[in-house]
Structures are given as structure tokens and as C-alpha cells.
């Protein structure tokens, strides 16, 4: 009887470990091959001989290193020697062999490398691998073990195409009426079987052969055969029927509730059977656990599949969170205790007690990577405790970290199922690494432990019902990104409820719900939490609402990744600007900020004394919406907000055509300026009738017609305030018409610009509500607001529209700490430097402000003028230069604290 594949695999691990350091052909080659044959349960002496004497084709005598007549010829070299030459030498011996002696296979090796040639397939290379990879390649030597050789085709790594194939199978099953929970569960089972076949849980090709060799080509009996298989996988060996067909009896008992539920019988045809066989050809052992869940959640939704990977959380981004949350500290502790077996054993015990919760786990990406890193760390501990595997009889008895230390909450059922299966898959991947390290095969089958994934709404179910407070160590994850303007009514209600109906909770992003609940859950504990979030929660007016409430709970930010670009590496990329915030109800002694000079690149680490809500090393302040400036500065407001349906707005061509029929209206036109017009020199005109007398208006029928249309537009609105405006159709909803020159700050500006372009306009212009304006402004005000000092403040405190800066008067401008100690001489120098900036702009009359302030095209003269202005403004604050933006923000927040102290 041949050995079982699991026994062969176990022996292969031991063989790899035993011979990993051998190099000399002459010293140990014979013992090496005796042991190799023993891996497959064969006594080498019974079937093969060393140093077979043959006469080669050139008449010279040669000695074959090892020959198993009619089966295998082995040519062996010392480590690092040329295997191509070894192969040529082996084939040279063929002329000296009889037909019965000619081998079907040639195997060449140098102890560490193996290359197998198959002469039934024209002498092609069918396997090439390192010694350490022998356990994964044993099926290539089925002829040695006494098994029938099944063709092992070249395997492609599992990638997006795998999901697309499974997606097509999903669509076909759905089309025949196999839908909902049953379909989702069915797909999960198939995915597990595909993975199990390529990772040693099942024998190689066992699942594929069941389909290919034991079902009809038209697929008519495939569904029945699969349902029978699912029952077998849920039945222990001792309870299986004695009459069970061999092709089913060979499958392992899986358990773990994965195959426990009775599902309706599906249906297959020829094409669907071929789809499943195509999936079998892929190498599912190489699947990345980081992409597994998101990849296959997408197969359930055709629209999602078109944008495949858009929500894929890359492994690198997950590590950005888990490293500072716990992994770096654990690795540092391991380094400290590794020389003491007692302390190391205690550390190992600590690893087995750590418990993790992802309250928005999706397909389990964060849990999977966290579990993998914890298991890999445990493996390093075991290598130190049991060097070389000394005294280890059953490595499975040593492993203490398990999937049941992990908890998750997921709103949708299918991702929750995927998360649980993904944890089993990564568990087995690490078990294979353990097998390799200790030279003995280890698989945790049947499944006895599971990750605790709860299907439910994390904002409604008590987290304590999922995992007890006193057991939990860490909360982590990537809660859903939904801006306040895009939330459904029920989502708004959820945020109101979990925030305790905090004032202005209607402006909060959906992700803040998880912050409120985590803060509440961790009270009085040592639990730490880290979430990925859109950077909006650390900017703009949300900061004052969210973090003021968090401060009441004594929440401390212990580490933070400042804004970076969260990209998918798949097609259909989703680029989101994110932050990672690590917090707890206690303060770490060492705090760290990860700053990005380029949001698309890697960060650099900065140690911090305190991290405030803007993710700056500075005092714990939050900026609330202020109605007037903190310092003595001009009052800014938005421009004019017409709500006119566009009936008073004209292009130059439309204006000319209108004046053809209504020439008396010419004096009533003013040039209209919004952010887009201001930055790009776009000419637009506004028909301003607010100052026009009724008598004058009635003499212009075309103008009256416009007034009537505006009135109708306002009356048709669903907004009651807009309906009231219909009573005064020539007036604006918001009117701001300075009588003299005024200062302009665009409400929206590209994040690419180092400076928001600011400027002056005269009373001949009428400002829209897309720009912020202030009358009675001087060159000093222009200079301060155009400086890097103010731009730094703006970048850290303003909100965003997508990725663009959305300049807020109430948050950014009214809270800005002006240089109140600046002398008259310093102010004069700022005015001069500001005038130099305006003069530099004037050198390029044909260029728009958008052109002038594009980082790629900004003229040297303008750059030089701004640099001089920056130095001048900096000196108004202090004589010591600022080294970077963070140093500016630390200073400004400290100054803000002084200016608001006692208020």
C-alpha cells in the first residue's frame, strides 16, 4: 500500500530540514538519495542502484549516479554546479542502456535544487524547485509513491482573472434561479475547495479529478456530485458509509460549520462545468489573503466587478495601521525577552491572549493580515524556544495563537462568510510555514475553531455582545466612508443616536459613528483603537463636533498617519485621501506622527509630545465655527448668492445679443466673478436689477421678462425660504456688494497649488458666493493671507471638496492667529513684499492666476517674490526661522491657545 500523501508530505518536510545545509556531492550523496526515496516509502536498495557502469555513445565509460531501471535516472552534483550540464551528462548515458533500462524520468540535483524531466512528454522540464519547496511538489513524484500520475499543468497565480471566472459562474447560477444566501454559501464552499486542493488540505488534483473524471461532460450530474461532496466534507471519517466511492472517501473531514448547512441542489451545464474546471487550473495556494475577501465579494455584484478592486485594501495600507497599533511594540518586546526562555514563554502566552475586534470587517482583510502577522511572530518565538525542532514530537501542540482570538461585525452576510473562510485559509498558509520550519507536516483539520464574525449593524448592536470588554485588546479597521451630504436618512439617524445627538451632528461623516462607539466601549480599559478614515474628520468644522465629544471621554490620540492617498492596485482605482488615527482612553508615553511629503509616497516618522485633533504636535485645541475674526482683521463674507436659475447670468455673446433687443440695460451689467472666473480669467456678466427703480424697469420689457422667469423659478422650488424670495425677484438671497476695492479668496482651490491665489478687485465686479470677499483690506492683509504661514494653517484646518481646498471663513479665517505683535515697520515690509508679488504677476498679463500658480508653470519671478514675502511674514511672528510646515503649525496652535485662553 502506498503512503498517504499527508504522510509523504510530512516526510518531505523532515527531509528538507535534514538536508538544508548539505553541499558536497562526494560526502553525502548516497545517504541523501536513500533518504529521498524513503520520503515516498521506498527502500532505494530494492529498486535502484548507485554508480551503474555504462558505455557512452563516444565509446568512453561512464557511471550513472543512480538508476532505477525503466523509471528514473538521477545525476547529482555539488551545490551550485550547472544543472544543464548535469542533464546533458545524464542523456549521454542513454546509448549505453537497453530499451527496458531507459528511464521515463531524469532528475538532476545539487542538494538544494531539483529539476525533473519527463520523457513521456518529450523530455520537457515538468518541475523545478528548491529543496525547501519539496513538500509542495511531491505530486510530481507520484510514480515513485505508487500512485497513478496525473498531469500537473503549469499553474497561473490567482489574480483578478480568477474572480472574473468565478463571477461568470456566479452569473450562470443566478440566471437559472439559484440566488441569494444559497448562492453566496455555495460560492464560498467552492472557493474553499479550490484553495484546499492547492495547499495540501486535499490531495493534489483531488477536487479537479472528481469533476473531470467522475461527472458527465454536459454537467448534468455535477450538482448532485458536489452536494454529496459537501456532505462528505462535513462527516468525520468514522461516520462515513463503508460504500462511499473512493474518489469521495479520499477527501478530508473539514467541519467548522462551513459545510454543515443543507443547501438546495444547484444545476450545471457544459459551459458551467468547464468554468469550474478552468478555475481548478489556477494556483490558489498563491492567493494573497489581503485581496481574497474584496476580490471575491466583487463576484457577487456585476457592477462591482466592472470596477474590480476599487475597494481593495492593500496589504501595505493595512500594515500602516497595525504596525504602530501593536505589531512594532510586540516585536520590540520579543527582541528584549528572546534570550530568557522563561520570559519568552510568558510572551508566547501573551500572544495567545490578545484579542482583536474589527467592527466594520467587510471581507476580513484587517483581521486576516493581523492574524497572519501574529502567527508569524509566534513562529519566530517557537524557533527560539525549540531550535532545530529539538524535542518536538507534535508541532501542533506548541501553537497557541488561533483564529478564535478574532472578532468582527459586518453589515452584509456574504462578506461576513468570506471573512470567516479567509481566516481559515491564512491559518493554513501559516501552518505550512510551521511545517517547513519544523520538518513535520501540520494542518489544523478538521476545523475546530473559527473567527467570531457577527452579521449585523455595528452602529446598532452592542459591541459587548460580540466580545466582552475585559477580554478585548485592540479595535481596528476601515469603517465605511460616507460623507454627511451623501448619507441616507437612516444613516443620519444612526449618527445622531450614537453621538448622543451632539450639536451639529448632521455635518459628521458616517465613519464618526465608529469613533463614538469605540470611545464609549474602551472607557476604563487598556483597549487601544486605530481606524482608517477620510481626512475630513481631522479638518474643517467636523473637528470641533467630533473631537470635542471625544475629549469629554478623555480620548488621547497616540499615533497618526497624516493625509495620504489610499489607492487600490487593481483596475478601477479608487483614490481616497485618508488618515489613520490611533487612540485610547489613556495617553502613551511615546507618540508618533507619520508625515507625508508626497501623499502618494511613503511617510517619515516624527516623535510628538501631544497629537491634537488636526494631527499636529501641539496643544489639544479644536476650532469651532467662529462668527468674527479672532484678531483685529477685516471681516470676510461670501459674495452674492442669487438663486435665480441662471436667468440673470450671461456669457459675452449672450450679453451682446440681449443688448441688441434691450440697449437701455447696458449700464445695469456688471462683470460676474466666482472662483472659476477669478482663477481662469473667464468673462461672464450679471444683469443687476436690485438698484433699478420700478419705473425704469418697466421701460425694459426684456428685463421684465427675466424678472418674471426668476420669480417663477423661485416659486417652483421645494424650499420654503426660496419660495419666499419670489416676493423680491430682483434681489439676491445673499447680497454683498462692496462700494470700493475688495480682497478675494476663492472658496475652492486645487490642492496642487502651494498658494491659494488671492487678489484685489474693484467695484465694477460683482462677486458670486463661490469666492470670499472683504472690503477695507490693505496690502498687509493681502501679504499675510498670501503667505506660507497662512497657507499652512489653511491646509491643516480647512475642509475639502474631493481633494481640493474648501476655504472656510468660520473655521480657517476667523480662527487664524494674526501676528498681533508685529511692529509698524514689519507691517510696512509686508506691504512692500505683497506689492512685489502683485508686480510679479503683472509681468505676465496673458497668463491666468491658474497658470501662474500651477507648480509646473509658476514663473521664477513670482516664486522669488512669494519666497521673500514668506520670510517677511515669518519674522512678524518670530525671529527664529520655521524649518517646515509642522513647525509652523506647532507655533500657530500654541499662539491660538494663548489668544483664546480664558475664552
What would your notes on this structure say?
- The protein has 903 residues and is of the alpha/beta class.
- It has 32 helices and 28 strands.
- The strands form six sheets. The protein has a nine-stranded mixed beta sheet, sandwiched between helices.
- The protein starts with a helix and ends with a helix.
- The relative contact order is 0.06.
- Mean pLDDT is 89; it is low at 150-157, 304-311 and 568-574.
Main attributes of the structure:
single chain; 903 residues; alpha/beta; tt1808, chain A; 5 domains; 9-stranded mixed β-sheet; 28 strands; 41% helix
| Content of β-strand | 5-15%
What fraction, in percent, of the residue positions are helical? 40-55%
Domain unit count: 5
> Ends: how far apart?
87 Å
| Estimated structural class | alpha/beta
Q: Which helices and strands, and how do they pair?
A:
Blueprint: H1 5-18, H2 25-39, H3 44-47, E1 49-55, E2 61-68, E3 72-76, H4 83-92, E4 105-109, E5 113-118, E6 124-130, H5 142-145, E7 156-157, H6 160-175, H7 180-198, H8 206-214, H9 222-233, H10 246-249, H11 270-280, E8 282-283, H12 289-297, H13 302-306, H14 315-337, H15 341-353, E9 356-358, H16 365-385, E10 406-410, H17 413-438, E11 452-455, E12 474-477, H18 489-498, H19 512-521, E13 528-534, H20 542-552, E14 556-566, E15 576-584, E16 591-595, E17 604-608, E18 637-638, E19 649-650, H21 652-661, E20 669-673, H22 675-680, E21 685-687, H23 694-698, H24 701-715, H25 720-725, E22 742-746, E23 748-749, E24 759-761, E25 765-767, E26 771-775, H26 779-785, H27 788-797, E27 799-801, E28 804-806, H28 809-813, H29 824-842, H30 849-852, H31 860-877, H32 885-900
Parallel strand pairs: 3-4, 7-8, 9-10, 9-12, 10-11, 12-13, 14-16, 20-25
Antiparallel strand pairs: 1-2, 2-3, 4-5, 5-6, 13-15, 14-15, 16-17, 18-26, 19-21, 20-21, 22-24, 22-26, 23-28, 27-28
Helix pairs in contact: 1-2, 1-17, 6-11, 7-17, 8-11, 12-16, 12-17, 14-16, 15-16, 16-17, 26-29, 27-32, 29-31
Amino acid at each position: 500500500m502506498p503512503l498517504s500523501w499527508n504522510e509523504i508530505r510530512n516526510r518531505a518536510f523532515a527531509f528538507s530540514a535534514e538536508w538544508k545545509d548539505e553541499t558536497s556531492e562526494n560526502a553525502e550523496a548516497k545517504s541523501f538519495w536513500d533518504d529521498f526515496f524513503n520520503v515516498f516509502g521506498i527502500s532505494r536498495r530494492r529498486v535502484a542502484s548507485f554508480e551503474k557502469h555504462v558505455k557512452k555513445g563516444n565509446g568512453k565509460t561512464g557511471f550513472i549516479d543512480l538508476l532505477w531501471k525503466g523509471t528514473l535516472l538521477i545525476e547529482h552534483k555539488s551545490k551550485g554546479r550547472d544543472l544543464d550540464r548535469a542533464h546533458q551528462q545524464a542523456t549521454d548515458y542513454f546509448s549505453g542502456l537497453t530499451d527496458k533500462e531507459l528511464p521515463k524520468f531524469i532528475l538532476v540535483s545539487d542538494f538544494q535544487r531539483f529539476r525533473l524531466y519527463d520523457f513521456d512528454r518529450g523530455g520537457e522540464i515538468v518541475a523545478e524547485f528548491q529543496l525547501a519547496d519539496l513538500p509542495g511538489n511531491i505530486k510530481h513524484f507520484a510514480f515513485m509513491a505508487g500512485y497513478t500520475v496525473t498531469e500537473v499543468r503549469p499553474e497561473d497565480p490567482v489574480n483578478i482573472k480568477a474572480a472574473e471566472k468565478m463571477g461568470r459562474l456566479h452569473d450562470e447560477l443566478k440566471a437559472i434561479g439559484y440566488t441569494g444566501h444559497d448562492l453566496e454559501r455555495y460560492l464560498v464552499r467552492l472557493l474553499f475547495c479550490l484553495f484546499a486542493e492547492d495547499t495540501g488540505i486535499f490531495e493534489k488534483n483531488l477536487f479537479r479529478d472528481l469533476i473531470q473524471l467522475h461527472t458527465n461532460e454536459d454537467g448534468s450530474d455535477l450538482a448532485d456530485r458536489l452536494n454529496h461532496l459537501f456532505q462528505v466534507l462535513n462527516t468525520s471519517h468514522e461516520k462515513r458509509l463503508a460504500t462511499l466511492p473512493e474518489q469521495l472517501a479520499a477527501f478530508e473531514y473539514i467541519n467548522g460549520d462551513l459545510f454543515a448547512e443543507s443547501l438546495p441542489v444547484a444545476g450545471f451545464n457544459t459551459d458551467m462545468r468547464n468554468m469550474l474546471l478552468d478555475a481548478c487550473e489556477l494556483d490558489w495556494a498563491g492567493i494573497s489573503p489581503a485581496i481574497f475577501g474584496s476580490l471575491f465579494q466583487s463576484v457577487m455584484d456585476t457592477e462591482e466587478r466592472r470596477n474590480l478592486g476599487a475597494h481593495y485594501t492593500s496589504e501595505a495600507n493595512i500594515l500602516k495601521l497595525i504596525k504602530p497599533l501593536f505589531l512594532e511594540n510586540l516585536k520590540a518586546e520579543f527582541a528584549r525577552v528572546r534570550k530568557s526562555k522563561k520570559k519568552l514563554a510568558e510572551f508566547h502566552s501573551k500572544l495567545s491572549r490578545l484579542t482583536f475586534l474589527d467592527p466594520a470587517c467587510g471581507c476580513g482583510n484587517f483581521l486576516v493580515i493581523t492574524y497572519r502577522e501574529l502567527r508569524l511572530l509566534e513562529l519566530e518565538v517557537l524557533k527560539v524556544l525549540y531550535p532545530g525542532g529539538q524535542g518536538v514530537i507534535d508541532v501542533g501542540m506548541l501553537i497557541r495563537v488561533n483564529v478564535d482570538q478574532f472578532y468582527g461585525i459586518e453589515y452584509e452576510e456574504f462578506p461576513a462568510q468570506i471573512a470567516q473562510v479567509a481566516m481559515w485559509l491564512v491559518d493554513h498558509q501559516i501552518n505550512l510555514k510551521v511545517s517547513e520550519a519544523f520538518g513535520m507536516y501540520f494542518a489544523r483539520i478538521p476545523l475546530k475553531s473559527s473567527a467570531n464574525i457577527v452579521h449585523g449593524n455595528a452602529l446598532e448592536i452592542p459591541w459587548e455582545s460580540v466580545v466582552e470588554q475585559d477580554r478585548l485588546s485592540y479595535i481596528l479597521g476601515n469603517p465605511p466612508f460616507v460623507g454627511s451630504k451623501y448619507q441616507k436618512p437612516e444613516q443620519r439617524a444612526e449618527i445622531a443616536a450614537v453621538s448622543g445627538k451632539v450639536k451639529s451632528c448632521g455635518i459628521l461623516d458616517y465613519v464618526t459613528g465608529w469613533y463614538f462607539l469605540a470611545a464609549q466601549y474602551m472607557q476604563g480599559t487598556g483597549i487601544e483603537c486605530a481606524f482608517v478614515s477620510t481626512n475630513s474628520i481631522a479638518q474643517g468644522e467636523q473637528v470641533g463636533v467630533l473631537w470635542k465629544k471625544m475629549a469629554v471621554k478623555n480620548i488621547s490620540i497616540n499615533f497618526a498617519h497624516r493625509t495620504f492617498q489610499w489607492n487600490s492596485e487593481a483596475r478601477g482605482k479608487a483614490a481616497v485621501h485618508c488618515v489613520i488615527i490611533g487612540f485610547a482612553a489613556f495617553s502613551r508615553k511615546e507618540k508618533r506622527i507619520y508625515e507625508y511629503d508626497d501623499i502618494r509616497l511613503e511617510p517619515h516618522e516624527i516623535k510628538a509630545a501631544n497629537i491634537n485633533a488636526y494631527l499636529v504636535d501641539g496643544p489639544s485645541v479644536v476650532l469651532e465655527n467662529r462668527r468674527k475674526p479672532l484678531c483685529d482683521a477685516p471681516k470676510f463674507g461670501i459674495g452674492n448668492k442669487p438663486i435665480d436659475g441662471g436667468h440673470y447670468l450671461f456669457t459675452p455673446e449672450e450679453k451682446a445679443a440681449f443688448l441688441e433687443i434691450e440697449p437701455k440695460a447696458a449700464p445695469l451689467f456688471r462683470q460676474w466673478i466666482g472662483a472659476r472666473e477669478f482663477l481662469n480669467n473667464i468673462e461672464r456678466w450679471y444683469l443687476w436689477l436690485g438698484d433699478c427703480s420700478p419705473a425704469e424697469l418697466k421701460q425694459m420689457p426684456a428685463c421684465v421678462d427675466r424678472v418674471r422667469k426668476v420669480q417663477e423659478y423661485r416659486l417652483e422650488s421645494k424650499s420654503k425660504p426660496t419660495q419666499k424670495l419670489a416676493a423680491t425677484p430682483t434681489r439676491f438671497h445673499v447680497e454683498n456688494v462692496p462700494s470700493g476695492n475688495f480682497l478675494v479668496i476663492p472658496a475652492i482651490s486645487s490642492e496642487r497649488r502651494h498658494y491659494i491665489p488671492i487678489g484685489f478687485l474693484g467695484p465694477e465686479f460683482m462677486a458670486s458666493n463661490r469666492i470670499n470677499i472683504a472690503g477695507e483690506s490693505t496690502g498687509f492683509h493681502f501679504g499675510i493671507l498670501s503667505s506660507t504661514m497662512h497657507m499652512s494653517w489653511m491646509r491643516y484646518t480647512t475642509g475639502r471638496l474631493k481633494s481640493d481646498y474648501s476655504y472656510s471663513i468660520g473655521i480657517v479665517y476667523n480662527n487664524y492667529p494674526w501676528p498681533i505683535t508685529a511692529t509698524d515697520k514689519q507691517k510696512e515690509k509686508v506691504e512692500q513684499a505683497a506689492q512685489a508679488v502683485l508686480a510679479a504677476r503683472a509681468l505676465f498679463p496673458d497668463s491666468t492666476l491658474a497658470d501662474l500658480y500651477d507648480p509646473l508653470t509658476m514663473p521664477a519671478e513670482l516664486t522669488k517674490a512669494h519666497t521673500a514675502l514668506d520670510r517677511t511674514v515669518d519674522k512678524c511672528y518670530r525671529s527664529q526661522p520655521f524649518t517646515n510646515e509642522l513647525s509652523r503649525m506647532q507655533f500657530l496652535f500654541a499662539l491660538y491657545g494663548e489668544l483664546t485662553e480664558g475664552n
